[in-house]
Design a protein that fits this description.
89 residues
């Protein structure tokens, strides 16, 4: 077989790259379709359970949670000794 020119070699590499990308896209589309089907099944099950009156219990941690925008208090050990502030001047 004759030696490929640089341009022919480049074209061959690009065609192989395209084929690989098309195969990858097809695989991703297949995976996405399977995930989409799973989501739709889950939504159907959720809707069914809600229609027959199934509810989740209210979270108990709401009262202990800090209000929005507030930082949670940092627990301090009872035996922790804090250093005295240094006054410069």
């Amino acid at each position: 077989m004759a030696e490929l020119t640089e341009q022919q070699s480049h074209l061959k590499n690009l065609l192989e790259q395209r084929a690989g990308l098309v195969a990858e896209i097809n695989e991703l589309n297949s995976t996405a379709a399977a995930k989409r089907e799973l989501v739709l099944r889950s939504l159907g099950a959720i809707e069914y359970l809600q229609q027959i009156g199934v509810e989740l219990p209210a979270p108990e941690e709401e009262a202990a949670a800090p209000a929005e925008g507030e930082a949670a208090p940092v627990p301090v050990a009872e035996t922790e000794v804090l250093p005295e502030p240094v006054v410069e001047g």
